[in-house]
């Protein structure tokens, strides 16, 4: 099995395309024999073998502080492919930092004016709210049958062929209700804080100090006792069909005749996983770069 991986920039979401080796060989055999570049023939090469887009899902127990990603997992659980639960571990911490302050004193007399700058180290009490969300995701029997068990390896040559969608994970309504969490107010008596009032515009340096008190200590202990383990599985998102090729421009690279352009791809047979995790619907279109190489015996072939 030959798999194409595309890694998205911001989110931790990996997309892949997979075609069978036999299909790739068929595509190679379907090279455009003519010396001229024909966009229709390039489209035919793309569509000569079925291409399936896959989307990754993490299974196991792990921290997930992205609310949109948790919402997508909750929606995915309504399809019967995974079981899903989430636990929140939140607490307040009281911490004493060392802060270097800058002070300016102006002095003046009848004949002079001077400015003196000096620094002073002081203690600053700060309160931190620690908020962690740990999810547990397991594949059901239905999910195990549908998913690819092993993660495919990326190939440098294939990454240029297909681009990830710009939509990414999107809000969905698959019967999964929105998360509702209670507000946790600062339990410390802030009015009893001793020490100078810190003016941030005068802070030159801050050295984080030790935590001197923590509420709720039990949640902190429980969070640190969690054993996080996860694996990545891949579900089919949709099949991909080339619609047309545009902007084909011939060039020469390393002594080889090349051509670069853009291919318009269209999503078909979109699965519920594709709608939830990949943000696609039937008919969704996107563009991707394409490169061809000319061979004397075969003509123009997709790289």
Identify the notable features of this structure and list them briefly.
single chain; 303 residues; alpha+beta; 11-stranded antiparallel sheet; 7 helices; 11 strands; disordered N terminus
Can you walk through the features of this model?
The structure is a single chain. The protein has 303 residues and is an alpha+beta fold. It is built from seven helices and eleven strands. Strands 1, 2, 3, 4, 5, 6, 7, 8, 9, 10 and 11 form an eleven-stranded antiparallel beta sheet that branches. It has one domain. The longest helix has 11 residues, at 67-77. It starts with a strand and ends with a strand.
Largest sheet: 11 strands, antiparallel
Question: What Rg do the Cα atoms give?
Answer: 29 Å
The overall strand count is 11
Number of helices: 7
Can you give the mean pLDDT? 79
**Strand residue percentage:** over 45%
The parts where pLDDT drops under 50 for at least 5 residues are: 1-29, 153-163
Number of domains: 1
Span of the ends, CA to CA: 18 Å
């Amino acid at each position: 099995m030959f798999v194409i991986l595309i890694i998205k920039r911001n989110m931790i979401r990996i997309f892949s395309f997979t075609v069978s080796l036999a299909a790739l060989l068929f595509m190679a055999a379907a090279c455009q024999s003519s010396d001229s570049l024909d966009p229709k023939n390039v489209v035919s090469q793309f569509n000569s073998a079925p291409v399936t887009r896959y989307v990754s899902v993490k299974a196991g127990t792990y921290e997930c502080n992205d609310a949109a990603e948790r919402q997508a997992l909750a929606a995915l659980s309504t399809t019967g492919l995974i079981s899903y639960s989430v636990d929140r571990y939140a607490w307040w911490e009281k911490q004493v930092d060392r802060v270097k302050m800058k002070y300016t004193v102006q002095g003046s007399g009848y004949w002079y004016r001077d400015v003196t700058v000096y620094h002073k180290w002081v203690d600053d009490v700060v309160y931190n709210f620690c908020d962690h969300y740990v999810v547990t995701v397991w594949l059901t029997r239905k999910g195990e049958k549908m998913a690819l068990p092993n993660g495919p390896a990326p190939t440098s040559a294939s990454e240029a062929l297909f681009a990830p969608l710009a939509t990414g994970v999107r809000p969905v309504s698959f019967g999964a209700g929105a998360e509702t969490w209670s507000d946790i107010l600062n339990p410390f008596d802030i009015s009893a804080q001793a020490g100078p009032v810190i003016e941030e515009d005068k802070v030159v340096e801050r050295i984080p100090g030790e935590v001197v008190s923590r509420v709720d200590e039990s949640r902190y202990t429980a969070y640190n006792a969690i054993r996080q383990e996860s694996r990545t599985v891949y579900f089919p998102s949709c099949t991909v069909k080339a619609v047309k090729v545009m902007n084909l421009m011939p060039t020469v690279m390393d002594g080889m005749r090349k051509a670069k352009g853009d291919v318009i791809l269209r999503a078909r047979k979109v699965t519920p996983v594709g709608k939830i995790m990949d943000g696609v619907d039937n008919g969704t279109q996107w563009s991707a770069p394409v490169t061809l190489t000319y061979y004397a015996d075969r003509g123009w072939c997709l790289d």
